[in-house]
Amino acid sequence: MRVLTGIQPTNILHLGNYFGALKPAVELQREDELFIGIVDLHAITVPQEPAQLKKNIAFATAAYLAAGIDPKKAILFQQSRVPAHAELGWLLQTIARIGELERMTQFKDKSKVKGQNVSVGLFTYPVLMAADILLYDTQAVPVGEDQKQHLELARDLAERFNRDFGQTFVVPKPIINIASGRILALDNPEIKMSKSAPSPKNYISLMDEADVIRKKIKSAVTDSETGISVDDGRPGLKNLLSIFSLVTNGSPEDIAASYAAKGMKELKEDLAEALITHLAPLQAAINDYLSQPDELEKIVAEGSARANEIASMKISEVKVKMGLSL
Ligand code: AQP
To answer: For residue 184, which atom of ligand 1 is closest to its CA?
Structure first.
């Protein structure tokens, strides 16, 4: 099956990105024909500092490789190096409707704070995402809850284009459940962990040093109830138990039971140490890739060239179907 996934290089990746995107991608590459986009054109829909963006692109690439992506198997590419993404994004904008973009909850959420000051790119982001998917005849896309609506739009645009211009695009299906649930923000368990959160206390970055991890876990928001239990009414604690479970492979319930007599302080201390141990080899591998910029460049250039070959054939087909040819 042909599958496409990706990540925005908006900051150093965090634990949620690792368990929700990188590790599932490593699983997917075993069986599927996997395309992984470092989607930098999406990242710039909110302001990015150019020098930092460049670093974040290198970091995201290194993180995928360090997590176990084999660039000979999966096609690991940088979105902005494949011009067909922007081109198809534009062509699909001509068949997308303002009303359907206005209904996108992610745009509504992200633009709430900034009002009229959000970029037009943030508004049309889901159309570019549809282009990313449709360019490669993608059959399936792993989606978390917040991306379901965007995939639905990609399906609608594919069907609309096929109806109006003739069969061109594969209509992609979602792969739900591949992500191991959302990891929540440490400083506010009502929202998800997020790279572009204003406070670094929100997340554990994949590159956080041992002492930073200890401090962040220690100050993670929990509750004042006594005892340790897996309980939806205690989202902060539940989140810590989920993270503990992901790094040790024990069930959250078993971990909760083993800390029933010990309490929150010890649970947090042990979780921090487990995290430090879990992240150490990943951090070493990421640093190793980052210390070889020429090798990283070669991998991204090759992956982008492979992506470009496929994408440019599709964009030519689309142009002919739309009458954009002599
Ligand atoms: N908290 C999370 N728990 C589990 N998975 C998560 N992902 C993101 N946050 C969590 C997964 O990581 C991938 C990254 O997708 P993205 O970079 O396109 O943006 P996002 O989902 O909006 O992630 P962030 O970290 O919150 O970035 P910003 O702050 O830039 O918007 C996706 O596969 C996502 O499911």
So the answer is: 1
What number does CATH give the domain 207-287? 1.10.240.10
192 is catalytic: yes
Task: Give dist(CA 44, CA 89) in Å, integer.
Answer: 15
What would the two tokens of residue 140 be? 């399936």
Note the CATH number of domain 2-182+293-322.
3.40.50.620
Tell me the pLDDT band of 110, cut-offs 50, 70 and 90: confident
CATH 3.40.50.620 range(s) for the chain read 2-182+293-322
CA distance 99 to 282: 43
pLDDT digits (tens, 9 = 90+) for 160-206: 999 999 999 999 999 976 555 789 999 999 999 998 888 999 999 99
Ligand 1 closest atom vs CA 24:
33
Per-residue pLDDT band at 126 (split at 50, 70, 90):
very high
In the reported structure, the alpha carbon of residue 239 is separated from the centroid of ligand 1 by a whole-number distance in angstroms of 16
Exposed (0-12), middle (13-18) or buried (19+): which is 30, by Cβ within 10 Å?
A: exposed
Taking the C-alpha atoms of residue 255 and residue 245, their distance in angstroms, rounded to an integer, is 7
The half-sphere exposure of 236 on its side-chain side, counting CA atoms within 13 A, is 17
pTM, entire model: 0.94
Question: Over the stretch 8-33, which tens digit does the pLDDT of each residue have?
Answer: 999 999 999 999 999 999 999 998 89
